[in-house]
């Protein structure tokens, strides 16, 4: 496993990281989820990403138990705030940030998180209030660094323009061969301001593994066939997308790797990406994905892949 520095922070995180959206505490049984966490450590994955809203606290609670026997300095732990936790609890107000930070720490069974991220932007709260509250959390020792997820370029620049507050070190965007929007503005702004990308959905919910074939029913043990995990993938399950993805397989074969590894290596070719988050329901999925770290692929093959999928969009 290779490691990259996270923005202007002092954190060195694994190029492949373990996520918990739709899986831990929700879509994957506890024993299987714990096996995935154990395998992640075996493979050198040190960055674990979650959020308070995943399973309304269930993912954090699972990780609190699963990590409780490990040395705190053996992993980098990130969670998020903003999502709706009750009828009255949501957003990035000072009250919510302080309340949700403490609740997350309780569930995670730790005194601090390494990275506390704004899950989305909160237009109902003044940005100054949000940044001051995040700064308060850092200065209290409850979070070491802060980040954002899916903020617009204008929102990012506005945060950096505020004086006297802690600065973001991470951005968590959707980014993959099939979804390249961050390249336009978010990555350039981030690179200029000491921010690295921690990418979610680098395999487009698994579509870029090539396991879904046009016109075929998804296998019973896949995300697309799961009642609890299938909704987000549906936007990619169109015939034209699946057909294009099948055309990528010969390129991966020429590169000497699986299509999943090829797709992850494509994401990691971007210097501003510190890590690609992968989900897993079985340990062997992590074995395959972790092998993408440090993988060298001919840029000409990446260029061919980009041409094959050019113009494809995720359905709403």
Task: Describe, in plain words, how this protein is organized in 3D.
With 316 residues, this protein is of the alpha/beta class. The protein has one domain (3-209, 258-296): NADP-dependent oxidoreductase domain (TIM Barrel, Alpha-Beta Barrel), CATH 3.20.20.100. 35% of the residues lie in helices and 14% in strands. It has helices spanning 30-42, 58-66, 94-108, 127-139, 153-161, 186-192, 239-255, 259-268, 283-290, 299-309; strands at 3-5, 12-14, 16-19, 47-49, 76-81, 113-118, 143-148, 168-171, 196-199, 273-278. An eight-stranded parallel beta barrel has the order 3-4-5-6-7-8-9-10, surrounded by six helices. Strands 1-2 form a two-stranded antiparallel ribbon. The model has no long low-confidence stretch (mean pLDDT 94).
Give a nutshell description of this structure.
This protein is an alpha/beta fold and 316 residues long. It contains 10 helices and 10 strands. The chain has one domain: NADP-dependent oxidoreductase domain (TIM Barrel).
